[in-house]
Protein 1
Amino acid sequence: MINFEEEIKKFHPSLEVDEAEDAIYNSNTTDLTDILLEMMQETKENK
Amino acid sequence: MRCYKCNSVLSETSFCNSCGTDVTLYKKIVKMSNTYYNMGLAKARVRDLSGAADLLRRSVRIDKRNINARNLLGLVYFEMGECVAAFAEWVISKNIKPEKNVADTYLKAVQSNPNKLNLMNQSIKKYNIALDAARQGSTDMAVIQLKKILSMNSNFLKAQQLLALLYMQDKEYDKALKILNKSILIDVNNTLTLKYIDEINKIKQDKAKAKAKSKPSRKQPKAVVQNNDREELSGNDVIIPKNAYKDVNYGLLTFINIVVGIVIGAALVFFIVTPAKNSDVDKDYKDKINSYQDKVAMLNISVSELERQIQNLTTEKTQLEAALQEANSQKVDTKIYDVIIEASYKYAAKDLVGCADMLSAIDTTKLTTEAMLATYNALKTETYAKAGDHYNNVAYQAFNSGDYTTAVPAFEKAVIYAPENVGLWYNMGKCYKAQNGGVNNEKSVACFEKVIELAPDSEYAGWAKGQKR
């Protein structure tokens, strides 16, 4: 049986257009390539 | 595929021909990202939007430069009614690749229709209000808002799911199922939608079972025509149909026709004219209710806007007050520099004691510039020892002559200038004691303890212990 109180907690406010700028600035764009580069840099420094 | 360091086109080899960087791992990363993109594209093509969004998010997390994946992710978000998330993806995409990017077309298409954009923003704002209302238990208000949202932005998946949940809460399962069936057309494999549909089906089945148990079967065996008494017909028997002819009673027929006419007329009035009038009245009321609901919704939006403005202004006020307080605390006290300059004049006029007296009154924490602090320290070094000796002599002479009124303040000044002078502390203790009629008090005991603390092995310490008793 679905528990309304629990289900309603799963819904989150949607981003408004005014908040789009923050959403773009705060989006984490670190990808696997960045991590790879960091690891290579660290390996070089340790050598 | 391009090199991540020098951006030159990569060949089949595992090294960049231009800068020589090893790109083996990088190629694997890009391939993995493309694989996720292809899987996401396949899901998007069959309208499994939530599945596609999940895979495309993974794709761009692995390789942020995968423009196709990012643009498609934006498109999927847009289709689900999440226009702001879609804009964010397209803007990032355009930032990574400014030229020849389809994200540019998408953004222009949306921006070229400000009314549509405004409608979307309104629908998102209303969704947030409705969600808030639903959380606070105002489900009626939330349902009204959500219905409006879906009339403005019919693909808003989250709004559809929330409306279905509210209907389910109100036990209006048919309405909920209708909404969910629309929702499943937008996103065919959405787990939340499927979960709700499954739940409704279960509830309906349970109800049907309970109904079947509570009511005994209405189906009765049909009455069998009792023809047992009748003899079986043979092939030679002739079946004569019943004669339906009756004499016509015209008077009765006329009366019946009139009554039927009246009944039909009354029925026409009852079923056609009255409902039309009622529907007009209903329509008026509905229009009024709709207009009031619109006003309420607009007022809610404006109230929330005003509350937000109040919050912002309060925050700004607090920040400004803090800044003002900080500015006041950092305000330079110019009088302190006058004191230092005057002390310098006294030093120049060889009045070392006067100079030390002026310096002792200065709060060094207020000396903000290094030059002033250096001047203060230089003057202090030159004058404090002399001033200490001067006040020591004055105090000692006054003490010997029994003039404790002069001796006590002189001792108190002397220990400011020579705080390490054990003899000075000892004599000041004795002076306090003598002033108190030869009995120790708090001040004299403190002086003797200071002597013991400063020079525990000296003869002064022994004397101080003797005086303390």
Protein 2
Amino acid sequence: MGSTSEFNRRDLVKRAAALGIVAIPAMSVLTACAGAGGGGGDKVEKGTKSAKNPLAVNESAGLDVVIFDGGFGDKYAKAAQGEYTKAFPKAEGKVKLSSTQKIQSTLQPRFNGGNPPDLVDNSGAEQMDFGTLVSKDQLTDLTPLFDAPSIDDPSKKVRDTLRPGVLEMGQFGGKETWVLYYAYTVYGVWYSKGNLQKLDAEYPETWDDMLALCAKAKKRGIAGWTYPGKYPYYFPFSLYPFIAKIGGAEVLRRIDNLEPNAWHDPAVKDAFNAYYELYQKGYVLKGSPGLDHLQSQNAWAEGKALFIPNGSWVENESAKQIAKDPNFQLAVGPPSSLSSSDKMPYGTLWASGGEPYIVPKKGRNSEGGMELLRIMLGKKSSQNFIEQVSSLTSLDGGTEGITLPPGLASAQQVLKKAGGNIVNPRMQDWYVALQKEKIGVGAIGEMMAGRMTPDEAIKKIQKYADDTRADSSVTKYKR
Amino acid sequence: MQHGKYRFIAGFLAVPLAIYAVFVISPFVQAIYYSLTDWTGLSSDMKMVGFDNYARLLKDSVFWSAVGNSVTLLLLLPVVTLSLGLFFAFMLNVGGRRRKKAVIGGVRGSGTYKIVYFFPQVLSVPIVALLFQFAYNPESGALNALFKAIGLGQVQPDWLGDPQIALWCVMAAMVWANVGFYVVLFSAGMSSIPKDFYEAALLDGANRINTFFRITLPLLWDTVQTGWIYMGILALDVSAFAFVQIMSVGPGGPDYSTEVLPLYVYQKTFRDGQAGYATAIGVSLLIVTLIFSAIVMRLGRRERLEF
């Protein structure tokens, strides 16, 4: 007879030790790419500067571009790549464009090894931390690009063709501009005009109307709001501009600057109370705390809820579901007025840049990287982007002569109505962990699920903000 | 001659030892080294900071939630999975009604069950996690629909959205995904237990419960112990990471209720650009793993039965 099993104890000890070693795979992944030392850094020679080549790109040098393959895909970048090789025929075949969803794990070894690509769309869940990149001197200052003449009109500099606020977003406390945000996103309360018409309603301009409309919808078994409870940091898309509208843009500035007691501003409390009322009165779609972004958008597209806090990418992301209802008529609204004493007028809107592009400092052909951006900021590439992914670009204009899909057309309208009243809170770029995991999941998500009162949520957020301010490992910014 | 013999042995050992040193020992040493630096993960520019990272760990409340949740998984996951695995395997192999000729046998249809139990093992972890995520969808998921159908319309939990039960939801998915493997493993172990033991027990009038605790479990102990270590490792490392990352709110939430150590390592490295700090968390994960292995080895020490 044999033994009870094929193992004996000594084998087991060895096995346990071996398994224990396997159990820390993260460490070996990390170490595999570390410490490769400087090296690299040998740049290609500059080309000759001319009217057609203001950035002095080496005409025959290769170019290495990495695109985030997310909601916008990479087709628009490939089209721009075609334009680049048209302008520099000698570079034909030497322009390498790759796309990935895993920006950081793909590029980390290359940054550590000192041979990064020439242009990176640093976006998505694996976005590399900008503060770290800037403080470790890994990025090229894009000022030459902004001072170069634009591709469509040589008498205008690139910086004068951009939408307001885009350039400033790319600065991190200094004069240099490190990042170009290519897409232009309108945040707010997204809804279906068709579904509102069924209730004989239009977008409510005051919060009282909002509550009344939600009450009306509730009687018909429709929820007022839904949201992705798995990512409750979607709420700020309509909540932050609401705060600014009530208490002025100054409140958001203090919050961004992590000032003590910034969250204890009465405007924050009013805004939180108003949203909490949605929960208390049962106007939030049941089960929302357990939905992810696509599930909540589906429920909303099916007409189970009227409103969802979101950004302009929703039109592309939920295109299929929205198309099922031919009378949907996607639209976006700015935050409703809480009272007549709000500091900013109705129309105050959060709009800002998305898809952050960077030109790594140690890339071989930085001029080429900037030149490709200059091409992308031209009217032709910009229109191509708008048509392909129904989102605006940072180029001011560029929409003439093309029919915009309903959501984008509505975004364009609210932008126009907002005029100068555009706010741009920076928490989500500057302090990602604080914004998403702590404020979003830890406080706002808990409040909207009814597990925390507004007062408790605000107190908790203020503590999170204070902790971040005191944490020396987090780079701080001011605006 | 002696001299030649050692050289001979060394010749065989050199290659595996070198591979072991390069791929196992050196990452260990490097990891400990990097945990003492302020490495960002995005630049080769770093400096030594001594034990700063570890001092920070002690004060980091998220880290302690992660330790708590990882240890909860470590304690409960093996117990639940292995108990279920043992129970099913016993029913499939020994627990059936007595039939003519055969001394022992499984419940009716045990052949089919064996295959069905193994199904989840064929699916990859992300698919299992996604399937469960759909089932847990509070708004249109299978579970809440089931509750409605059987007249429990008032009971509509948020599942993954509720910090009280989120970790349990994730754990249930992990148990489901893994139990089939242990059914097969224990079935194999049970089939090597001699039938005459059971025959003797039956003649003495032992019922199923007695048979299980007096014969099957003691003779299967080594297999159970191996399974225990496998499950423990699984609760601590990549598998837990994958399930939590895909299923949970945040991920890691709500309110850090599903944050586990490997996920925290990932977030600190790939989101916050603090690879040095992340490595320190990795080292603490190593310590937890070693303590676990030591305890299991000590508790599991028993006299071996030879038969």
